[in-house]
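Issue 218. Parser rejects a valid record. Input:
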Amino acid sequence: MFKGAIVAIVTPFRNGEVDEEALRGLVEFQIENGTDGIVPCGTTGESATLSHEEHDRVVEIVVDQVKKRVPVIAGTGSNSTREALRLTKHAHEVGADGALLVTPYYNRPTQEGVYQHYKTVAEAVPIPIIPYNVPSRTGTNILPETVARLSKISNIVAVKEATGDLRQVSKILSLVDKEFSVLSGDDFTVLPLLAVGGKGVISVVSNVAPADMAGLIDAFEAGNLKKAAEYHFKMWPLMESLFFETNPIPSKAALAMMGKIQYEVRLPLCRMSDANDARLKKVLLDYGLIRA
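Output the parser choked on:
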């Protein structure tokens, strides 16, 4: 079962190419700070603008660097079931521990189409699979009843829920077995999701403050709700600032300010405005992640 503080890791670039050295460094930074799992090639990893070869290589680099110290859950989603199948097969072949598949985007499949998409991949590749529900980006919501159907497929083991709707999360939890993991896809809903039975988060904030996100979940699991809430409110400024502009632009700006990567995103994403850059820098200074 996948649980805890799992990072949706950025893909660092240098001179327009994947920066392997920086990526390996980010993996070590995560593991040293208690992250429970790593997701390469998710939305935060700019999967939409990686070539097929780059996508495969990023997964290979992360699997190689992690060396089974924590689970690697490769982003392998696509709006083409055939393409998702190819990516998922590759992830399995190179040793990933799971696959995160975003709901097919733009196509806007019916609930039956969503079900058949995931069923097709799950039956063809013997790897634990996590559907990723983020209707604000995809245009399609995986309804709780569809999640419940999918949970009956043996290797569909969790769902990443990024609707921000605790009513939907609660309905899912009421319909699935307790072994099925519901993971938050939004940092600001981690604590309330844990309170109703969720198992963790696939996090953006963990890119810059992995120890604190891991600390929140560890505190909750230890029954220390006061400490968990303290972590929640401590990270709140980061939760807001890392979405001043489209994810992962602010995360990459922050990591560059922290000296961990070059500040490069791929078009159609572009650098933050000067005003938002200054706002983000102040948050990082106040948080203690960078020095003046």
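Fixed in the parser; the record now loads. The two ends are 42 Å apart (CA to CA).
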